[in-house]
Amino acid sequence: MSLKDTLLSLADNPKMREFVVQNKLTRGVSRRFVAGEVLDDAIQATRMMNKKSIQTALDLLGENVSSEAEARASTQDYINAIQLIHKTGIDANISIKLTALGLDISRELCLEQLFQILEQAKQANIFVCIDMEGSAYTAQTIEIALAAKERFEQVGTVVQSYLYRTQSDLEKLIEQKVRVRLVKGAYKEPENVAFQQKSSVDQNYLTLMKMLLARGNFPAIATHDEVIIDAACAYVRDHGISKTSFEFQMLYGIRRDLQEKLVQQGYNVRVYVPYGSQWYPYLMRRMAERPANLIFVVSNMWR
Ligand code: FDA
């Protein structure tokens, strides 16, 4: 098993979660990638970024609730975030996960929660992006995003270039003018559903990116891959597409230099700002993407 696979497996390991979350040092180090444990931390992080003309997407960490009460509590948390964004006037929108809204319990419960959030978001004029989780949820997430778009304008979702099915999903989303964030994909997926080679994932990303830049509704090109970012800049320049018709998105704490450079070049940049107490699986996925981050964490544990 590769280091990447090991780290992705540990993301779902409750004993490891317990160890890392209880450890004061790893908690401190998680701040490199997570704004903090409460909503105010994400608001503060946004204020700092707005000063640099960078917008944010607030992500309350947490996934896979197993009771209706937890799903309702997540809904309330997301609504609180929308209300505080509106009240403070910061330039932010939100990202949500359907498994945090009870998708594992029932589609009905999840839709009820989602529509409550979207109702609040509509009143506050704030966009809501439905994150994409593991492949067991892809079909349902696409279907729910399309259903939500029939009732609400300000909703979008995410597609992952490592999945074979994504090009066909993307056609449907583009046709219904759903706003899409394009990512490579962060979960451990088997070879019957996903490309295993980085070169194939990247190649598919470029194909999907061009579809979105040419025909998408204000798409988000979410990556830290400079080769891909350069290709996006060249594509819009060569095809006379406005720099303001899409946005680049990156994760909190990753490639801040590149975020600022793109803003200076006149592109929209949005940073995904995770916050909340359930940061462990998120942190492990960031380690898996770049095992050098593990050295950063381990070396800080001994400081
Ligand atoms: P890649 O992994 O090839 O990295 C390219 C370069 O970027 C690396 O060489 C390194 O320099 C830098 N880099 C990448 N990751 C890094 C890290 N963790 N630490 C330091 N440097 C790093 N996934 C998903 O499945 N569902 C989702 O909903 C989302 N949502 C989402 C939102 C946003 C705004 C972003 C940017 C990403 C996601 N993702 C996601 C995660 C995504 O699928 C992917 O795992 C990461 O973006 C890493 O892939 P890159 O595209 O950056 O390329």
Automatic annotation (TrEMBL):
Binding positions for FAD per the UniProt entry: M132, Q160, K184, G185, A186, K198, T223, H224
UniProt GO MF annotations: nucleotide binding; proline dehydrogenase activity
Record has Nucleotide-binding as a keyword: yes
Coiled coil: none
Pathway: Amino-acid degradation; L-proline degradation into L-glutamate; L-glutamate from L-proline: step 1/2
GO terms for biological process, alphabetical: L-proline catabolic process to L-glutamate
Binding site for substrate: K97, R285, R286
The name this protein goes by in its record: proline dehydrogenase
Species name: Tengunoibacter tsumagoiensis
